[in-house]
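Q: Prolyl oligopeptidase family protein, please. Structure only.
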Amino acid sequence: MPGGAAAVPTIRRITYGDGACRFGELSLPPGDAPVPGTVVVVHGGFWRAAYGLELGRPLAADLVRRGWAVWNVEYRRVGGPGADAGGWPATFEDVAVAVDALAGPVAEAASGRIDPTRVVAVGHSAGGHLAAWLAARPGLPDGAPGAAPAVVLLGAVSQAGVLDLDDGARQGLGAGAIQAFLGGGPDEVPQRYALGSPIERVPFETPVVCVHGTADDRVPIRQSERFAAAAGAELVRLPGVDHFAVIDPATDAWRACRDAAERLLG
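A: Structure for Prolyl oligopeptidase family protein:
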């Protein structure tokens, strides 16, 4: 599906709300023909402001070369200044609005080339949590952050994702990153965990593929194992692979993630 060797993809920065962090980068293959599907890339970094969407740019470049549209999204993160501070509920609201923008301003910017009914999400680490949570949005109760989605995903790929926030908090993942993200531990703000943790939203219809390395010492494969068992989700085990190989386009670990996204897009 890629264009000619000399062709250059189009990359546009598009805002989906107010503030410094509510934007994304839309990458489109060369030409003006409709694109067969869109991949939403959600970066990781334990939801902290120190990490941004630059982590997703190499993945976006690889995906767009294969003919897909890519919407690489930024969002408010923990530790951001003032109104740009993330956590509960800001981060959830942002990624939900960013995805729904595929049926609004992003679709308009793409001049009709993207179909908002053919969208999957790919996210790494904390972004894997958000990608799986985006897949669960149709089952959220009225009034919850992210409820009533305008764009329903065909599926999500969680790359070493934090999929059980209760368990992760009790295991001390990210030196308290989950507690900082949700504003407390599971015994302090249980409703936030119930609404925000992918494993707590099971069962839901949108398929999630979990890709996880057995040598991951940042987010142990236990996270994906627990979710896959609860959800009946596909788990792709990567023997001897660490936390970051899945976001290196030169690796077989990334190709396993890319292949999963392409399968979900059909």
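A: Brief note, in case it's useful. Strands lie at 10-15, 23-28, 38-42, 69-73, 119-124, 155-159, 208-213, 234-238.
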